[in-house]
Design a protein that fits this description.
Length: 214
Amino acid sequence: TRPRLPRERTVSPAELMPRLHALIAAGVALGAPGHGAAVNASGPEFVSLPGYSEIFSGRRVTGCENNGCRGTSVPSVVDQLVEQTRGRSSAAIVTSWPDIARVAARSSAVAVSAGRHGGATRDRLEARPGLKALLTRSEGERPWPGNGDFRRDRDTAELALAYLDSEKPSFLFVGLGETDEFAHQDNYAGYLDALIEADRYIGLLADTLAARAR
């Protein structure tokens, strides 16, 4: 059935997420329709963690077959980055969904904060007073709209932006998760609100990177 929303909420994708669409039009997105080769999950289980495992490894077969997998059998591209540059390149992973940490990186040189408490190398962020304060604050928040150790997207985005500003990593992965949580709840209005907020965070990240490039 069509979601019962006010007419003014029915807008085009470009109006809903203008910053993301502007970036895609500029050619910075991988796999976007009409912008280079497509990026597809290989399956056979088309669920979250195996998909993230393929994204992080760049391989079709990773050893992660479902959301309960403990990890992968291959190193991630993030691991390879820090290894091949012998530590000259810094990398960080900041996500709302804690499970991503199991497939994102194995190297102790990669700073990982996943969910409100997760990340084997979370101490790399806690070593910075400003970042530690953000981590501590998010620990006390409810996981809504997720559950378990899920972290609100606003907290994930603020932490990622603060890390980018203070540490200037060579590689930064930011994983927002509220759109997925609202979709599981069949909450279309919440899903749209999460998309709008995600677009705002994408814009802030893009602006920060553009300022660094000047």
